[in-house]
Every structure is written in structure tokens, then in C-alpha cells.
Amino acid sequence: MNEEHIDQVDWDILYDLRKNARMTHFDLSEKLGISVEEVNQRIKKMEDIGLILGYTVVPNFKKLTNRITIFVGITRDENSGVDDLTLAEKLTNLPDVTEVYNLVGEFDILMKARLSNIDDLSSVFINRVQRVKGVRRCVIWVTHHTAMEELGTTAFNFSRF
């Protein structure tokens, strides 16, 4: 395996570890029909070249206080002197924010956050967002049901690369 190419076995390892990061190398070797040493080498190489960024805990948000998931579409104030990437970086520092994406389309940024209760939405969260230099307008969506959500990823700030 080299940096430009990963084969099907590497994809299988990535898939299995994304589903269960605690899966042992022995269990991976049994499942994939390769030696434990080969599993070790493949995982180490994927870590070294940055394909595997880390391992994480997946919380059950229904059992935590942050039960309300919201999405916020943000339009940047073009006269603020703040560019899209800088604004996105500032928004990642707000409490309760879990994801921030720069977009092409109607909004400049899509942000995801988890709040303890609906009162936090206007009294705390939106007031904080609207005070960030560069934010012109926010449109909020409050979820009432989550059909699918990928939680097995580590929070990672890609803007630093």
C-alpha cells in the first residue's frame, strides 16, 4: 500500500473500524483472512499517511442534556472584511457547535449544534451567533427526528490544512 492507492483490504479495515473502533486487530485478521501483523502494518500505514485521523467515543445524545439538534444557514456580511473561511473558523469556537461547513449556494455556511432545550435557541445560541463579526443573516432549522446520523467520526478542523 502506498499513499496514492489503498486496496480493498484497506477499505474493509477502514469500514470495520468506522463501525467499531474497538474491534481488535485479531478480530479484523479473522474477518478479513489476513495475519494480525498485516492488519497492524496496514493500520499503522493508514495512520502515518493521514487516512486514519483518530479514534473516538460515540455518545448517546438522547441520554445527555444536549437533546435538540439544530442547523443554521448563515449568510456572510460581505462588507465586514471577514472571508468565508475565517468566519467558519470563528464559528467553530462557539459552545454547542458540532459541525461547520463552507457552502456554495444560498448560504455561505451551514452549522450544526446541539442544545439542551429550546429556550437556549434564542436566548443564548442565536444571540452568540449573530454577535460574531461577519454574520449577516441566520436561518434556523430545528430537527424533530433523526433518521440517520454518522457519529463515529472525530471532530477535526480541516481548515488548518
Describe the structure.
This protein has a four-stranded antiparallel sheet, covered by helices on one side. It has 161 residues and is of the alpha+beta class. The chain contains five helices and four strands; from the N terminus they run H-H-H-E-H-E-E-H-E. Residues 154-161 have low confidence and may be disordered. The protein is 34% helix and 19% strand.
Overall geometric form: elongated
CATH architecture of the largest domain: 2-Layer Sandwich
The CATH homologous superfamily of the largest domain is termed Lrp/AsnC effector binding domain/regulation of amino acid metabolism (RAM) domain
Give the class-level CATH name of the largest domain: Alpha Beta
What is the CATH fold-level name of the largest domain? Alpha-Beta Plaits
The computed structural class is alpha+beta
Distance between the termini: 23 Å
Strand order of the largest sheet: 2-3-1-4
Query: Radius of gyration, rounded?
Result: 20 Å
How many independent structural domains? 2
The overall strand count is 4
The main pleated sheet reads as:
4 strands, antiparallel
String of helices and strands: HHHEHEEHE
